[in-house]
Write a structure and sequence with these properties.
CATH architecture of the largest domain: 3-Layer(aba) Sandwich
CATH superfamily of the largest domain: LpxI C-terminal catalytic domain
Order of helices and strands: HEEHEHHEHEHEEHEEHEEHE
Radius of gyration: 19 Å
Pfam family, one: LpxI_N
Number of domains: 2
Oligomer: single chain
Mean pLDDT: 88
Protein name: LpxI family protein
CATH class of the largest domain: Alpha Beta
Shape: globular
Low-confidence stretches: none
Organism: Hyphococcus aureus
Number of helices: 9
Strand content: 15-25%
């Protein structure tokens, strides 16, 4: 919705491809078409008919059951590549989708290009800044995400006082934070959630994202703060995020690569 609103606000022509079962209800008020996830041919045909020269991916789409997927002819031709990529991880699947659109002459751009105000900037968002002990946890968590990049694990990790509490996997950030909240004896108190891209990640369509729900769950887990890599992460509703963080006594921080480099 934010991408559509940004395009409308600046008078930019746009057309929405609404994936069946995965689209925000608000998108049905925007110019667009409904397509199943396997209808690659239909999607490409519509984009060309609408004279689109660029495409931006946004939202959460669950990995489909490939054995039950109904595809058009282009989707069926693409399916073997996607299944082969799936064995290497979600990042490889996304790369196949980008390559497919680019082979049709479309430019794939990132959300941050379409809506620049969503990109995390360096420094603190809100009234609270991290302390040196928080930076130590931040560096360790950031290093873990970097080190696990070749395995296409997750984009997040939680570290508290040097102890690794959780590493994001297929469950996603929210469920990972819920796991931290369920740890006994307040073991996660004062920890830091870090989200950053994995090495080699397709940044145009899979940037790390945090929002209000991230802050609520981080507070429930007793964390001291949330940190994302500036310039390569998105913050949804940054004013609400800052307000919630202030109310919960959490910091939200955009770190640079230099700040988390191993010492």
């Amino acid at each position: 919705m934010r991408i559509v609103s940004a395009c409308a606000a600046r008078g930019a022509d746009h057309h929405v491809i609404r994936l069946t079962g995965a689209s925000d209800p608000g998108l049905y008020n925007s110019p667009g078409d409904d397509c199943a996830i396997g209808e690659a041919g239909k999607i490409i045909r519509i984009l060309k008919q609408e004279n689109c020269d660029a495409a931006v991916f946004a939202g959460i789409v669950q990995r489909p059951d490939f054995s039950a997927l109904k595809a058009d002819w282009r989707g069926a031709a693409l399916l073997p590549k996607i299944i082969a990529a799936a064995a290497r991880g979600d990042g490889a699947i996304l790369s196949v989708l980008v390559d497919t659109l680019e082979s049709e002459g479309l430019i794939v751009i990132g959300v941050e290009e379409a809506v620049q105000e969503l990109t995390a900037q360096p420094g603190a968002f809100g009234a609270i800044s991290p302390q040196e002990t928080n930076f130590a946890d931040m560096r360790k968590a950031a290093d873990i995400v970097h080190a696990l990049g070749p395995y296409d694990v997750g984009q997040g990790a939680v570290v508290a006082n040097g102890l690794v509490l959780a590493i994001e996997a297929a469950e996603g950030t929210d469920e990972m934070l819920d796991r931290c909240a369920s740890l006994p004896n307040g073991i996660g108190r004062g920890g830091v959630l870090v989200k950053r891209p994995k090495p080699g990640q397709e940044l145009r369509i899979d940037l790390p994202v945090i929002g209000a729900e991230t802050i609520r769950r981080a507070a429930k887990a007793g964390l001291a703060g949330v940190a994302v890599e500036a310039g390569v992460a998105l913050i949804i509703d940054v004013d609400e995020v800052a307000t919630l963080a202030n109310e919960a006594g959490l910091f939200v921080y955009g770190f640079t690569a230099q700040e988390v480099a191993p010492r």
